[in-house]
Amino acid sequence: MEPLVHRLGYIALNVSDLEGAIEDAREIAGAALVDQTPDLALLTSNARHAELILHRAEQSSLRAIGLETLDPANVDEVARRAREAGLTIVSETPSLPVIERAVSVAFPEGHVIEIHTPMPRDRPPRYAGPGIHPRFLDHVNLTAADPAASAHLMMQVLGLKLSERTQGWELAWMRAGDGRHHTIGMAKSPDGGGLHHYSWEFADFADFKRLGDVLDARDRTLAWGPGRHGAGDNIFAYYVDAAGFLVETTAEMEIIADPHFQPRIVDPGENLSNYKVVNRWGQLPSQAWMTHFNICAVLR
Predict the structure, then answer these.
(1) Residue (of 197, 193, 196) closest to 298 by Cα position
(2) Average pLDDT in the 104-110 region?
(3) For the residues of 83-117, what is the DSSP string, one character each?
(4) Which of 50, 67, 100, 180 could form a disulfide with 42 if both were Cys (CB 3.0 to 4.6 A apart)?
(5) Rounded to an integer, what distance in angstroms lies between the CA atom of residue 159 and that of residue 113?
(6) 111 neighbors 153 (Cβ within 8 angstroms)
(7) In order of start, what are the domains of the chain with their CATH numbers?
(8) Mean per-residue pLDDT for 126-150?
(9) pTM of full prediction above 0.85
(10) In this predicted model, what pLDDT tens digit does every residue of 48-70 receive, in sequence order?
(11) What is the largest CA-CA distance in the chain?
(12) Cβ distance 97 to 121 under 8 Å?
């Protein structure tokens, strides 16, 4: 059976400094501002209406992630599976007026996921402005006290497929219908449910060079990279944005088209020391990367 969701739709973040977060997303990542009110900003990097949604709040936190389905009937199926699994339906009203149908589900470790029909493609595909201009927002890596249980529940309810995991479920990567190695990653954290990072897709390696130079011009540095992950085979670099979120930039992620693909089970090494899994170019994760964590927003 194909996954019920096709791709990452958006990430919604609560930010303590809305204006600073908008500036960072535009000046460094190079996203375009779609709309802004005193307490909300919508940004995108392509023709889709919104990918990065920023809400003014007292504390920076993960508010929700959106997963896009191509079939409206899948919204109902996810709601049915969520209720069957005993999960809370947060809302059946779309979070944005441009979305036709949606259901938002709260998972046990605090992650809220909105399954929604496609985001309208009503923005210019190219635009002027500073920053790198990524291709799209491509994945998120969540944290959990029990990543195995969280991953299994998301696969059960959302139809995601496991691409790869470590032997003890310290890390797991799940793919959606577009076949990318992971749309949602899951990492074990003593802090429990939250967000480790979200990721923009770059066009080619030259964009990583530009990212380093843009950060340097602002007296900032990369948190890790560039390198090539063994899990996913993607090129990567990470930085921390103005709102305190870890942002990955990636390119060349593995595509898994085989519906019968058997998940890989890999040895991460002590403290993620197996470079063949973590970074095939050799540089192991920085302390800043290893310890990064943003909480999930408390449901109101």
Answers:
(1) 193
(2) 98
(3) HHTT-EEEESS-SSTT---EEEEE-TTS-EEEEES
(4) 50
(5) 13
(6) no
(7) 7-116 (3.10.180.10), 137-295 (3.10.180.10)
(8) 97
(9) yes
(10) 999 999 999 999 999 999 999 99
(11) 52
(12) no
